[in-house]
Write the structure tokens for this entry.
Amino acid sequence: MEGQGSSYFDPNLCYPADQVPEEIKKATRELADLCDVVLTGETEMRALAFLPRKGSAIL
């Protein structure tokens, strides 16, 4: 839409992939769901169980 920007989110995970607390995973996924673009690596994506949703991009 004209006049609206896109929102970007980089979770910058600071935990080892196998030690991310569930509350961090949940909160991070909720925040990512509000964004148009999530900037993340493959390890973060797996650790946080990110799934692309229609109209968004995970890079």
